[in-house]
# Entry
Amino acid sequence: MADLLKRIESKDVQVAVVGLGYVGLPLAVEFARAGLRTVGIDTNADKVQKLNAGKSYIPDVAGKIVKELVGDGLLSATTDYDVLEDVDCVSVCVPTPLRKTKDPDISYILSAADEIARTLHEDMLIVLESTTYPGTTEEVFLPRISSNNLKVGEDVFVAFSPERVDPGNETWQTRNTPKVIGGVTARCAEAAAALYRHAVEEIVLVSSATVAEMVKLLENTFRMVNIGLVNEMALICDRLGVNVWEVVEAAATKPFGFMKFTPGPGLGGHCIPIDPLYLSWKMKELQYTARFIELASEINANMPRYIVGKITDALNTHGKPLKGSKVLILGAAYKRDVDDVRESPALDIITLLEASECDVSFHDPHVPHISSESWSLERVPDLMAAVRSVDCVVIVTDHSGYDWPGIVEHASLIVDSRNAVGSIASDEGKIFGL
Ligand code: SAJ
# Structure
């Protein structure tokens, strides 16, 4: 341990990051920028090739920095896990999706653990970053990587440190976002903290890996439940004939005891809709029902259907049935100014519209193509021509690149599931808000 700690502090270690996605690539870059020789491992040969060519494929990571670090020999990538035989510290940043049954899928964690087990050696630090249910690190990951002759806390060191990446956030990035770390033992935490101090400005040590796993789940459950609450307020305000956006904006003037969340077409991304379900799934094993999580998940999951109801009502005011009407969806990504469509409510809205034999098209400045099991769409090539030609324009994601005044002027009917148009247009009867 003393030797590893000394080598970490003097940067005389080889670091690896497994999983070069929106979490792993920024982390690998920060380790390399700190002067640590860092190798990224990913099963996607295309990502590996791009990184070794000095290119970034993650919008939040500047290609210029990747090029410099690769050129300086501080950063490289490979698909070959054998490199772990010469690696001292490895961070695991692989996806943790849900299965179709809504159960956790930790298969990526397990396959990374198997590769680490195969290459495990003395004085190795392993940090799991992937969001997962409480107990994974100590009950699943640790036994999977352990070997009989290497004792955790003495010969090998294991910790959990949740990723806190907010894609597209230009203020809070990997280096300046406080990093929570919980070790399987105190010495594990000490080793992980020594490593991460090179990459992040603030370390927050907690007493165990399970506490660290729970910290992340509280963070994301907090968001899911509050988004579910404000979406339910939207349903309530709709029945009262009150503008929910006006209510939210006015409530947000309270300088204490309130945090603003905004209603929307549903809950997208590969984190917020998913991570809390890891917790509710685990609690079922312990005969406990996490009711807030299940209720919020249900409300958020039903928002696309509510939006389709609004589209139906709007077309009805123009004497048009949903069937056969032309509807243009603006913004397919799951949130503003990103190119990611995972769990995007836009896909659910399109699926529902397609089921009603509506003629659906879409535009998104960041997304050229979208598909699901039953349909596949290319982005319309001429946005304003499409806006003029359709029966209804539906705003799902209000990307900052759109010319909202121009769209409002030329659209015959608009359903706004975000507040972009609401903040611009005053033309009653043409715009249906959430
Ligand atoms: N959304 C609303 N209303 C809101 C806020 C968000 O409808 O008031 C929707 C968004 O449109 C999006 C979804 O919820 O579809 C998720 O939004 P998000 O802002 O949480 O976006 P993510 O999932 O990219 O990023 C989050 C991080 N976001 C913030 O902290 C602001 C954070 O929760 C996690 O660090 C990250 O996921 C993660 O990786 O867990």
The chain has a mean pLDDT of 95. The chain is about 40% helix and 15% strand.
